[in-house]
TrEMBL record:
Pfam families in UniProt: adh_short_C2
Protein name: SDR family NAD(P)-dependent oxidoreductase
InterPro entries on file: NAD(P)-bd_dom_sf, Sc_DH/Rdtase_CS, SDR_fam
Organism of provenance: Shivajiella indica
Enzyme Commission number(s): 1.1.1.-
Keywords: Oxidoreductase
One Gene Ontology molecular-function label: oxidoreductase activity
Lineage top rank: taxon: Bacteria
Family: Belongs to the short-chain dehydrogenases/reductases (SDR) family.
Keyword check for Oxidoreductase: yes
Length: 265
């Protein structure tokens, strides 16, 4: 097992990509702090995973002290911390007209500042274990879509945080920091979100080749498989890296005018 007995915090792990990562690392022998906002989904996740190697915290990352409570729970339960996966995020639509100062601050608080505070809270324990931080970003960090302005800005900030700490922390604390930028992923909430945008019930079965050359979009389990590599010892000394996981190139690609009504993440 590639992660045997490693203690890992995975934020936002009661649904979607986070849940898939929690499931994958548990399969590789890890112990996981499961985190989310909804108690019912948290209880369902623990029932699905089993309680032997999981513990649950249901709390908003934007609350004062939540990052420290997540770290304390891991250490209290298992006596150490080996890895932190900053996956939780607020995926919310906005453009320049609908984004004001308070809204932008809230998105940055959840998507950029909370991960930073979690890293700070976890750092002394990660230093002891020569551990790793894995941030889950988005391909929208590179520029984003017109209707994902605040979200895209927050993911750009997270990417810079990864690059900066990924350079500094291996030298000062022996802790590696890397990031995965998922493309368009078929999560439960993405299915609901697109239906709310007016797409059909089975919209994901007929994705234009422009967005899905393979004929489908990514699955959460495929992001989770990549996450295991970055959390495991086999990724060696690699740090400060941001890896885009999408099925087409992002730079210099010509999207049609209606791109913002189709693509998401």
């Amino acid at each position: 097992m590639r992660l045997k007995d490693k203690v890992i915090i995975v934020t936002g792990s009661t649904t979607g990509i986070g849940k898939a990562i929690a499931k994958a690392v548990l399969a590789e022998g890890a112990k996981v702090v499961v985190h989310g906002l909804e108690e019912d989904l948290g209880i369902q996740a623990i029932e699905e995973f089993g309680s032997e190697r999981t513990v649950l915290l249901v709390e908003d990352l934007n609350n004062d002290g939540t990052p420290q409570r997540l770290v304390d729970l891991a250490v209290k339960t298992w006596g150490k911390l080996d890895a932190l996966v900053n996956n939780a995020a607020w995926i919310v639509s906005s453009d320049i007209n609908s984004t004001d100062k308070e809204f932008l601050r809230k998105v940055l608080d959840i998507n950029s500042i909370a991960p930073f505070l979690l890293i700070k809270s976890a750092l002394s324990y990660l230093e002891r274990s020569k551990g790793v931080v894995l941030n889950i970003g988005s391909v929208n960090a590179w520029s984003g879509e017109p209707n994902l302005l605040a979200y895209s800005v927050s993911k750009g900030a997270l990417m810079t945080l990864t690059r900066n700490l990924g350079d500094v922390l291996p030298r000062t604390h022996g802790v590696r920091v890397n990031q995965i930028n998922p493309g368009w992923v078929l999560t439960e909430r993405e299915m609901i979100r697109k239906k709310q945008h007016g797409l059909s019930e089975n919209w994901y079965e007929e994705i234009p080749a422009m967005y899905a050359p393979s004929g489908r979009i990514l699955w959460p389990s495929e992001i989770a498989a990549a996450a295991v590599y970055w959390l495991a010892d086999e990724s060696g000394p690699i740090s400060g890296q941001v890896v885009d996981l999408e099925q087409h190139p992002l730079m210099g690609r010509n999207a049609p005018k209606d791109a913002s009504t189709i693509h998401g993440k």
